[in-house]
Amino acid sequence: MNAEVTIALVGALAAVACALVGVFLTLRRLSMMADAISHAILPGLVAGYFLARGPNVVAGFLGATAAGLATVWLVEALTRSRKVKEDTAIGLVFPALFALGVVIVSRFFSNVHLDTDAVLFGEITFAPLSTWQVGGYNLGATALWTLGALALANGLFLALFYKELKLSTFDPALAAALGFAPALLHYGLMGMVAVTTVGGFTAVGAILVIALIIVPPVTASLLTDRLPVLIALAVGVDALGAVAGCLAALRLDVSIGGMIVCVQGLLFGAALLFAPRKGLVAQAARRARQRREFAQETLLVHLASHEGTPAEDTELSPGHLEAELGWKPAVAGRVLARAQATGLVAPPDDDGHLHLTEDGRERAQDAGAQTTSPP
Questions:
Q1: How far is CA 192 from the centre of its chain?
Q2: Rounded to whole angstroms, how far apart are CA atoms 230 and 221?
Q3: Which of 147, 150, 179, 261: disulfide with 211, CB 3.0–4.6 Å?
Q4: From the CB of residue 128, how many other CB atoms can be counted at a distance below 10 Å?
Q5: DSSP secondary structure string, 210-229?
Q6: Is the whole model's pTM more than 0.70, yes or no?
Q7: How confident is the model at residue 195 (pLDDT cuts 50, 70, 90)?
């Protein structure tokens, strides 16, 4: 397997692992918890280095995971105290833990080199260089096995606790009443987020992990409201963005991690603009259609309320609409032309008066009933 394929697969597996936990993280409005964990694991990495008396993957992984879980517990403890809100608690905990890690490193491990570019921004290019050797056999890049195991573990976690996670996410009170232990589920989910963050941290860097956890689920949420479809779309968008970003970066000879995040941002921007129901374009079109329908109903009600009255000679003339309804001439012309084109208003009679058709009178009655009905 060549390096380019390995890098693309690492990116895809990281995306799948992150998207699976990112969906429920964003639904619970805890997106920044991933950011908190990714920064707060530094003391755990330092502790693992200290206990192993040098670089050790297992010790570092366990220490970082413990630090991630400690971050979740501290945030929850501060939130339960009712002294600060959850977002404030996150903002208090992760800078403190990250700063603690920096202080320990500067005090006791000042001779250890930390490549901040690779750690924070992620350098997935190095993934093919670290391989797993068993019995003299090269089993491929270590990151492939690590991220593959994380993707499988997250998938099994969601499959086993899908119903419980769904209920505790949307109605925690009902979940507690039914005995689903939402607090335990919350810590289980946060534990999977911590493990995923640590695993992705070692392979692709903290910033890229945060983007892979948060951006694709948010993108998918613009496209659907159904949870199973949301999960599938989040995984698909995440994997597509990761692979496309890898290929684009290799072609353009730029940072792979940075390009992956850029592609994820482009996918989010496309969904934000062009999503069928929630996109800005669709919303603008819907508001324009509602304005046209409201203006047309206003015209119909106005004509219906003055037909057969002594004031109809004035009120039913096209030129009077502008002054009566406060419309500009162009607006009045468009509304009237649309009403005539749809067969709701008849062409002006010999006296220049406007009259409703039978369909127009029915629509006017319906519109009048809607405006006068009690809430």
A1: 19
A2: 6
A3: 261
A4: 21
A5: HHHHHHHHHHHHTT-S-HHH
A6: yes
A7: confident
